[in-house]
Amino acid sequence: MTKAPTVSAGPWRAFVNVAQIPESGLHRDIVADEVTRAAMAEIAGLRNISAARASFDLSLRSGGRVDVAGRLTARIGQTCVVTLEPIENDIDEDIDLIFAPADDVKELIDDLDEEAEDGEVPEPPEPIENGVIDLGRLATDMLFLAIDPYPRKEGAVFEPRVTAAEPGDHPFAVLKAFKAAPKKPTSGGRGEG
Fold first, then answer.
1. Is residue 153 within 8 Å of 85, Cβ to Cβ?
2. Which residues contact 101 (CB under 8 A, 6 or more apart)?
3. Bridge partners of 54?
4. What is the 3-state secondary structure (H, E, C) of 98-152?
């Protein structure tokens, strides 16, 4: 007996049962509450997420596939990598993905690989797990992908500290001193003669 795939866990959850999407399509707006935003900020290593919302339009396609299009907007608190001051950044991301039944995803990926030309492989569909699409997880993933890993305060420029070098502070100073030292006669095991 095969075990049904589990719906992915995460702090922001908003499930849509694919069987309940009408032929005319479905629109969903989701907003992350304060507890959810705090959990997402902790996972992402952010100071905070002061707002996160997403809007989705779901449309049925042939073969049990679902087109999910929408937009994610969020305001996140980060720390400037140059000044170390707190800054706020806005995220505004378009979303356009195809979901397919989990059992069909591997077959669809294989078909896409065969159709790929010039090394360009189209994006494979996302799996529909247990007949459900988790819009909250999708929005969370898009938010995490949109985070700038090196945020800078507007106008902040990194200027390395430059100090005047002492003449003897370079790596070859020892060699120079060695060359300038008087040569000592060597006495050794060889006889002159």
1. yes
2. 64, 65, 127, 128
3. 30, 72
4. EEEEHHHHHHHHHHHHHHCECCECCCCCEEEECCEEEHHHHHHHHHHHHCCCCCC
Query: What single DSSP character describes residue 169?
Result: G
**97, 103, 80: which is closest to 139 by C-alpha?**
97
Work out the number of other CB atoms within 10 angstroms of the CB of residue 16.
Answer: 22
Q: Are 107 and 81 in contact (CB under 8 A)?
A: no
CA distances to 63, 119, 124 from 111, in Å = 14, 14, 10
Q: Counting Cβ atoms within 10 Å, is residue 150 exposed (0-12), middle (13-18) or buried (19+)?
A: exposed
Using DSSP, how many helices (H) and how many strands (E) does the chain show? 4, 7
List the one residue out of 71, 68, 66 whose CA is nearest residue 18: 66
Q: What is the pLDDT of residues 132-184, one digit of tens each?
A: 999 999 999 999 999 999 998 887 666 666 665 666 666 666 666 666 666 66
Do the bridges between strand 86-101 and strand 132-134 make them parallel or antiparallel, or are there none, so unpaired? unpaired
CA torsion sign for 97, 134, 141, 13 is positive
